[in-house]
Amino acid sequence: MNTVEAFNQALFLFINGNADTPGWVTGLALICAKYLAVLVPLVLAGLWLTGRDWPREVALRALLVTLLAFLASFLVGLAWPHPRPFMIGLGHLFVPHAPTPSFPSNHATAFAAVALTLLAGGLRRPGAVVALAGLAVAWGRVFVGVHFPLDMLGAVALAGLAYAVLAPIWWSCGTALTDALIALYRRLLAVPIRLGWLRR
To answer: Where do the structural domains in the chain lie, given as residue ranges?
Structure first.
């Protein structure tokens, strides 16, 4: 075992819960690991529904960065299918999970991609909320035994790479793409917009 993997496993065992962990801590970790991910689509949808062009543009960019990061994550998993802790009998598992590649974490990838894009786009409050929630999710998924700590750092790196790759493409056509999607949104949802149920 190399030094990095030894450190990864040692840090995992330090964070991972066990039979002596208080029930409320385990419960909190399960909530973070399983349910906080819903915050990502809710934040993006909320930014779109503000009715303002810039939040919509940043939300769309965040979605595309996330999708690109997911593609990179999938390719990394194919090229290097690192096992999850429970697949090698390490630590305690608190929630069932399929034996898929561990590195990088898709949950952390989504949070990192969205938080990075929102913060870079000047949307500091929603960006900070997503970033803090992402830290909670990262802790929770290591605690319940489905990920290693370095899976989370790998996710942040992939999100940064995806943002850097998409940036020059976005600056050339991002506004036009956003305008086209806004026009489509207004056409498809014309009735609820006219009734005041949705913002234009």
So the answer is: 3-194
* Amino acid identity, position 195: L
Percent of the chain with pLDDT over 90: 92
Provide the CATH topology of domain 3-194: Vanadium-containing Chloroperoxidase; domain 1 (1.20.144)
User: Helix/strand/coil (H, E, C) string of the chain?
Assistant: CCHHHHHHHHHHHHHCCCCCCCHHHHHHHHHHHHCHHHHHHHHHHHHHCCCCHHHHHHHHHHHHHHHHHHHHHHHHHHHCCCCCHHHHCCCCCCCCCCCCCCCCCHHHHHHHHHHHHHHHCCCHHHHHHHHHHHHHHHHHHHHCCCCCHHHHHHHHHHHHHHHHHHHHHHHHHHHHHHHHHHHHHHHHCHHHHHCCCCCC
Would you state the structure tokens that stand for residue 42, as one six-digit string?
């809710």
Q: What is the pTM of this model?
A: 0.94
Neighbours of 163 (CB within 10 A): 22
What residue type is assigned to position 64 of the chain? L
pLDDT in tens, 41-55: 999 999 999 989 999
Q: Are 159 and 19 in contact (CB under 8 A)?
A: no
Separation in Å, CA 189 to CA 55, 74, 113, 199: 19, 34, 28, 10
